[in-house]
Design brief:
Strand content: 25-35%
Number of helices: 2
CATH class: Alpha Beta
Helix content: 25-40%
Number of strands: 3
Shape: flat
């Protein structure tokens, strides 16, 4: 149980560092954005950046039925997912 507490504490530290001021940046609406996406049979990951600064990020696991999608459907799925962040 002590190991589990240590893992939870470490994950909380990572979460705090990723969501606090030095990491996330407010976007400049007049500047362009770059979206980086990663797709696997396990899940979807997206990062929105502007001028090499992190604006937002999101990830999700694929539901069981979506794991069987053909590649072109998964690519459309990540386009829809990334447009929502």
């Amino acid at each position: 149980f002590n190991g589990l507490r240590l893992v939870r504490k470490s994950l909380k530290k990572i979460e705090n560092r990723l969501t606090n001021d030095p990491v996330l940046t407010l976007p400049e609406v007049i500047e362009g954005f770059v979206m980086y996406c990663n797709l696997s049979r396990a899940g979807l990951d997206c990062v929105l950046m502007q001028n090499s600064k992190l604006i937002a990020y999101a990830s999700t696991k694929l539901k069981t039925h979506k794991k069987n999608y053909p590649t072109h459907n998964l690519e459309l799925t990540i386009v829809v997912f990334s447009s929502k962040i």
